[in-house]
């Protein structure tokens, strides 16, 4: 049978997976095989709304490489709560070093006391380590429309009449951001989607007319460093803060241990009595115990006192050793979960999900 393609984005039509390109509910797929439009394009056309899409890394790199063939502005959305999980490997090289703006989303979740200057500096460093040199790093909460006017002005200015490609890993809030942008600035544009010039190549771009050029939405990359891919829906709900994170402080002597539910653990091996200030979702409980009891507690209380994870959910932990000096305050970062800030000459053993790598940064607060 001949493949059916969406007249909007060019994706091959399929009825199995709504997170993948070209999805249409089986009941909607009629006999008439002309002018078929996938659900994502339908929603964009009728409700001015983009829906998130996921694709494999191999497919993703094809897409990103295609952007390198155009002189365009790239807007990369990242999740401020999971910076590592938001990164797209080789983005700069694959896109032919096109101009880049980085928008750090979900700023509403960070405590107000986080200093934007420090956050900016920290981000700039991580991005530089990944060969990304954005023209601008901007902060927003796409949900709360924070700094939207400024972001709009910067995109307008830096795009300089060129098309704008919006890229991001899954779950960083790319769709929420585009929807906020469209609702705030595009009005209700008629014919909001146009046939993609890549139609037929199934690159799954969606072109949205915007002023006198296009905003082009791209599917989200599944970054295997993202914790969200290794937890159940229920755990994801528990680890995702719903509002500004409130710190909880524990005074710890050495040879004590903190458990963040059963999802992370810090053993305080040596050092003076120290404050451990924990920044996690309001749904996660932190438990203190003696180091000598910690293994036993984990073995007997995982899924009970130490929860989430929830019953029978695999959440393998891996340990890392860190030695800190007392020159400044540091954050121990658990990508996708949160962070703990400490100050002192400390030896620590830090446990996190084996697919994510905990690390130390200068404290944001
Ligand atoms: P996409 O996969 O990158 O398109 O991400 P979505 O736009 O679907 O958002 C993923 C999740 O993050 C959803 O649960 C959103 O509600 C949430 N989200 C998006 N933007 C924000 C934000 O600014 N703040 C907060 N707290 N959550 C957000």
The secondary structure category is alpha/beta
Number of β-strand runs: 18
| Alpha plus pi helix count | 9
Radius of gyration from the alpha-carbon trace, in angstroms: 22 Å
What ligand molecules are bound, each kind once?
guanosine-5'-diphosphate
Output mean pLDDT.
89
Give the fraction of residues assigned to helices.
10-25%
**Strand order, sheet with most strands:** 4-3-2-5-7-6
Distance between the termini: 60 Å
Beta fraction: 25-35%
Categorize the overall geometry.
globular
Regions with little confidence, pLDDT below 50 for 5+ residues: 194-201
Return the string of H and E elements. Answer: HEHEHHEHEHEHEEEHEEEEEHEEEEE
- In this structure, how is the largest beta sheet organized? 6 strands, mixed
Q: Keyphrases for this structure?
A:
binds guanosine-5'-diphosphate; alpha/beta; globular; 365 residues; 9 helices; five-stranded antiparallel sheet; 18 strands; 26% strand; six-stranded mixed sheet
Describe the structure.
The chain is of the alpha/beta class and 365 residues long. It contains 9 helices and 18 strands. A 6-stranded mixed β-sheet has the order 4-3-2-5-7-6, sandwiched between helices. Residues 194-201 have low confidence and may be disordered. Bound molecules: guanosine-5'-diphosphate. Guanosine-5'-diphosphate binds next to helix 7.
């Amino acid at each position: 049978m001949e493949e059916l393609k969406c007249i909007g984005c060019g994706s091959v039509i399929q009825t199995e997976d709504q997170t993948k390109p070209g999805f249409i509910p089986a009941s909607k797929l009629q006999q008439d095989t002309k002018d078929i439009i996938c659900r994502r394009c339908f929603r964009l056309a009728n409700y001015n709304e983009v829906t998130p899409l996921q694709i494999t890394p191999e497919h993703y790199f094809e897409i990103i490489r295609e952007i390198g063939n155009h002189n365009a502005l790239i807007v990369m959305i990242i999740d401020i709560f999971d910076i590592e999980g938001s990164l797209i490997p080789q983005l700069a090289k694959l896109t032919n070093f096109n101009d880049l703006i980085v928008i750090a989303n979900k700023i509403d979740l960070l405590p107000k006391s986080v200093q934007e200057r420090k956050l900016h500096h920290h981000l700039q460093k991580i991005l530089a380590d990944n060969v990304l040199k954005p023209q601008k790093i901007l902060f927003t909460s796409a949900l709360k429309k924070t700094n939207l006017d400024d972001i709009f002005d910067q995109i307008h200015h830096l795009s300089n009449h060129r098309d704008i490609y919006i890229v991001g890993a899954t779950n960083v809030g790319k769709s929420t951001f585009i929807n906020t942008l469209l609702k705030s600035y595009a009005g209700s544009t008629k014919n909001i989607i146009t046939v993609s010039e890549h139609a037929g190549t199934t690159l799954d771009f969606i072109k949205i007319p915007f002023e006198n050029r296009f905003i082009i939405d791209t599917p989200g990359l599944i970054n295997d460093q993202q914790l969200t891919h290794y937890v159940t829906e229920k755990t994801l709900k528990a680890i995702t803060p719903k509002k500004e994170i409130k710190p909880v402080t524990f005074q710890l002597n050495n040879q004590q241990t903190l458990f963040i539910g059963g999802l992370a653990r810090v053993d305080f091996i040596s050092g003076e009595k120290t404050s451990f200030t924990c920044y996690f979702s309001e749904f996660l409980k932190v438990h203190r115990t003696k180091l000598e009891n910690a293994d036993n507690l984990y073995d007997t209380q995982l899924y009970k006192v130490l929860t989430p994870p929830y019953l029978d959910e695999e959440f393998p932990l891996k340990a890392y050793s860190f030695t800190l000096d007392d020159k400044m305050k540091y954050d121990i970062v658990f990508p996708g979960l949160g962070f703990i800030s400490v100050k002192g000459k400390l030896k620590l053993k830090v446990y996190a999900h084996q697919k994510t790598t905990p690390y130390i940064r200068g404290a944001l607060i």
